[in-house]
């Protein structure tokens, strides 16, 4: 039977485990940057730029993860459990192929990828082996991302939180001795961090398989690990390809901005890296809300509750703006103190503190994008965000970063002005799309497909 409004959990019940997951993920990134920065600001910059490439490659996994999440939530909302199971198993084989290709790109293309980002010459000797060492973890991340998406679609966000906690605790426990050496273990530096990451992700895969068996009664067969069923994946790709394209377009534009930062030298790159790590502590609140909204809207679309979906998105957006503004303002006030966690350089601290205030504008605009785009995706309206956002990403985010930072000589301040302008332009466009109900035909089409 489809989930009814009385049996469906409150959005906060879904959001708080997602928030904790995201906070832990950000904390690990902050810890990694801190450990690298303790060696030198050059090592901190190497960690940041290699990690940005890794995150960009990770977006390929959203081709599977985003599509799987939406198709399964709509199926479960419409009472189609067998359809949901077939899609879940199809995601395993798709993740194998995407993860393997991504790992291969990082392994053999590290030099070229870092060169594209204008990585300073003094950063390359540390960044290249680190990026190559991250390759094995990417394959495990592909499986974990899709399997976690399936668990969340089944409203089991607490279980995914347990897996994430186990992964991060094991990562930290292994990273410290592998990076700095312990007893007979040699100090591996940044590659030691990557090795610890791969081992922790292997643990996460084992836990996901256990939870799939116990709670979802799903056990992938040997063939499921490489088979690509056409019908199920067609549904996933219909949602996942545009969703991933929107994320990849943003990430590529952001990487172009990172390349602009790279031309400003290792000092500016380190400043940008530290501010980004602090800023990532803000975005988690909007992300948790957005992911919970996507899950709930998917179930509501499957059940035909379009009015409830509209009210949920409107309320969640207002709350997200209040929370994002409050948190980003508090972080900006504490900026100098937070920046001294990474460096004692007074120039980096002063410039970084200014960037955090500009970050308040960035985060408010970003809240529109995260909440509304995820809601549009859950209804099946996935192409408009890509088409509408591409021009802003290319011209405002990428082009504006180079124009303001390099041509007009504003440096990192120019980058953040471009970031804010892009987020607000796209965010307001997406909100108008939602508020005029342009997504309703897509939601009705998804509902009709479930009735076949």
From TrEMBL:
Keyword Membrane attached: yes
Keyword tags: Cell membrane, Membrane, Transmembrane, Transmembrane helix, Transport
Keyword Amino-acid biosynthesis: no
Lipid bilayer topology: Multi-pass membrane protein
Positions of transmembrane segments: 12-36, 42-65, 86-110, 161-180, 192-212, 256-275, 282-301, 321-342, 354-376, 382-405
Stored InterPro entries: MATE_fam, MdtK-like, YsiQ
Subcellular location(s) per record: Cell inner membrane
PANTHER family recorded: MULTIDRUG AND TOXIN EFFLUX PROTEIN MATE FAMILY, NA+ DRIVEN MULTIDRUG EFFLUX PUMP
Protein name: MATE family efflux transporter
The species this protein was found in: Pseudoduganella chitinolytica
